[in-house]
């Protein structure tokens, strides 16, 4: 059996976009599990994903206020097939990230994180996969807004970085 995950972080609605892009919503509909690594900003986005996703695992980020922090943990854990996954918003600087995360999450197979808006896909010295899907609404200095799709089949994980086209502000004014 295979399980399809949609990895999101740093949606920043409504600060960076009035709503989630249509491509994100279609990907939510197609996923068996949606993982959101924080910086939602608003409650309606959490409510939307809770009702639309088949299954949702999320954490709060540094820009999330008390209402989101009351509903979401700082760190979440979920097991998908034979893969143990942790989710956190911030991992600190990129330098020595792999070594720090091995020490912080010694029994995790995959760590999904956000905060930087920079897509990241590496494997630590201990073999943990580190994934940051970037942001589907705020590309910062990246060439495009992004999200990730991961397909898990037993212990095997295949990951795809997906560019996301944001609707122009004029389309929603």
From TrEMBL:
Signal peptide: none annotated. Its cofactor is a divalent metal cation. PANTHER family: VACUOLAR SORTING PROTEIN VPS29. It is an enzyme of class 3 (hydrolase). InterPro entries: Calcineurin-like_PHP_lpxH, Metallo-depent_PP-like, Phosphodiesterase_MJ0936/Vps29. It holds the Pfam family Metallophos_2. Its EC number is 3.1.4.-. Belongs to the metallophosphoesterase superfamily. YfcE family. Keywords: Metal-binding. GO terms for molecular function: hydrolase activity; metal ion binding. This is Phosphoesterase. Coiled coil: none annotated. Residues 5-152 form the Calcineurin-like phosphoesterase domain.
């Amino acid at each position: 059996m295979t399980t399809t995950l949609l990895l999101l972080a740093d949606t920043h609605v409504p600060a960076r976009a009035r709503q989630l892009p249509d491509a994100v919503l279609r990907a939510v509909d197609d996923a068996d599990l949606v993982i959101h690594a924080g910086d939602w900003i608003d409650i309606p986005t959490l409510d939307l994903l809770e009702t639309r996703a088949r299954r949702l695992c999320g954490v709060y980020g540094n820009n999330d206020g008390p209402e989101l922090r009351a509903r979401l943990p700082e760190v979440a854990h979920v097991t998908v097939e034979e893969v143990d996954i942790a989710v956190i918003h911030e991992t600190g600087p990129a330098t020595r990230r792999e070594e720090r995360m091995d020490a912080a999450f010694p029994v995790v197979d995959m760590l999904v994180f956000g905060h930087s808006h920079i897509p990241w896909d590496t494997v630590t010295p201990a073999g943990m996969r580190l994934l940051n899907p970037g942001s589907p609404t705020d590309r910062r200095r990246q060439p495009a807004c992004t999200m990730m799709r991961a397909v898990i089949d037993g212990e095997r994980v295949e990951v795809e970085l997906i560019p996301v086209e944001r609707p122009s502000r004029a389309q929603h004014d």
